[in-house]
Amino acid sequence: MLTDAKIRSIKPGIVPIPTADGNGLTLYTMPNKRKCWRYRYRYNGNPTSITIGDYPWVGIKEARNERDEYKNQLKRGVNPKAYKASKTLKLKAENSFRSMFQLWFDRHRNDWAERTAKKNLAAFEKHIFPYMGDRVVSSITPLDILEVFRKMDDKGLHETLTKTRAWTSRVFQECVVLGIIQFDPTRDLPSDAFKNKITKHFATISNPDDVASLLMLLENYGKIGEYQVAEALNLAPHVFLRPGELVGIEWREVDFNNKVIRISAERMKKSRMHLVPMSRQVLSKFIEIKERRLSDKLVFPSPTKRGFSINAETLRAALRRMGVTKEQFTTHGFRGMASTALNEHGFRDDVIEVQLSHIETNKSRKAYNHAQYLKERRDMMQYWSDYLDKLKAGNLTQL
Fold first, then answer.
1. pLDDT in tens, 147-189
2. Residue whose C-alpha is closest to residue 359's, from 298, 350, 29
3. Predicted confidence (pLDDT) per residue in 87-145, tens digit
């Protein structure tokens, strides 16, 4: 039987040198000094062998245990090669990136809103799993990761890349903790490995004369377009909501008594409830719409799709129908218009940012308070609606 000392004493020759350990286990010393364990056996009367692994990474005890495992399979009539192949497939399935991702995701799924989780899962299904989902995590190198990420980078999917990169790193970190790999392969990706994200600013206007002209244009849309679309467009400058958040407002979110709109967390980009204090003008408009009884559920129901609201694209199309180009203004531009003007009018930046739902949150900061600065926000929203009314009336000298 072999010992470590005896193995170290074996010198390589010009051909592989076999040294028997016993019961079919043999160590082959190669001309390049590599030492490899093989198990020699007969199956269906034919001599064959199977590789166990290289010494010293596979020690004597481990090699003998694996040989005994193969011998037991032979007694059951199973070819050790078929048995090893099935074990390898099982190991790949258990330790594939996809399976480790699922393990990590199941543990943390309550960390995100359902909408956010579905969106990020879809990104992995499309951009990550096709290239390395079935790869054993220990076989994935930084270069492999770089090639996958650069596919997204080359397509300009910078936001998707940022999110999938963060989640991918967390999966690998989980594998490190579990002892499956030694390090996170994403950690060595250089900071300049990808193109700089080009920040796209939505077209907006800030000049009071231009704002006044836009408001008059929106008011006149009711003469040529659907009522729901016209009312959503006319409310858009007053409420600071993203287009999708605005058109999807439900009556259950409109609190007439407390004069506030409570946008539910699942509909917000930041996945948290958001409060919109209603100015007198906004409250009056919601009362008017309610009296129309267009829908028991939706404030802006689609005139063509029963049970659905109008969509953000409808608002954009309405602007284009009025001759407003995308270079001049977009439906997101109402938010920028309000932010620019209110900053110029002396309102605190924190108050404006909270009302725009821009404040970032994380577990190292205090929990987000959707009622933060509510008194200041109420005053600001009333001021803004009054300001817009003065602009529309042409009373620029009073501003």
1. 999 888 888 888 788 888 888 998 998 888 888 888 888 887 8
2. 350
3. 665 655 567 898 889 888 888 777 666 767 788 888 999 999 999 888 888 888 888 89
CA distance 176 to 143: 18
392: nearest Cα among 267, 161, 216: 216
Which option is the CATH number for 208-398: 3.40.50.300, 2.40.50.200, 1.10.443.10, 2.60.40.2890? 1.10.443.10
The tokens describing 29, both together, are: 């010393």
**In the chain, what's the furthest Cα-to-Cα distance?**
104
The Cα–Cα gap between 356 and 110 comes to 25
Q: How far is CA 111 from CA 103, 254, 357, 365, in A?
A: 14, 28, 19, 15
For the domain spanning 96-188, the CATH number is: 1.10.150.130
pLDDT tens for 192-248 read 777 765 445 567 787 888 888 899 989 888 888 899 999 999 999 999 999 989 999
Of the CATH numbers 3.40.50.2000, 3.40.50.2300, 3.30.300.30, 3.30.160.390, which one belongs to the domain with range 4-84? Answer: 3.30.160.390
Q: Where in the chain is the domain with CATH 3.30.160.390?
A: 4-84
The secondary structure of the chain in percent helix, strand, coil, rounded to multiples of 5, reads 55, 10, 35
